[in-house]
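Sequence only, no structure available. Ideas?
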Amino acid sequence: MKALSTVLKDPPPPVNVRRSEFMSVPEASEFLSIHRNTLYKLIAEGEIPAFRLTTGGRWKFRRSDLEDWLTDRQARSTR
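Reply:
I predicted one. Tokens follow.
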């Protein structure tokens, strides 16, 4: 049995938190800390990796692609 101090230090994650590999526009906007209109602008300019599952469908983002994109942007800004 775990000690009470151990249980209090490591609370379980909230039930409503999902860590999916794919994100919607609202989820990606929150992840990147940018407004959704800024995200749509980046999509239109081909600046950010995004895809649609069907023609005219909603934009989706792979979490790992966004993490790589952020790393690349940070590296370019320090040059």
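The helical segments are 4-9, 25-32, 36-44, 63-77.
Hope that gets you unstuck.
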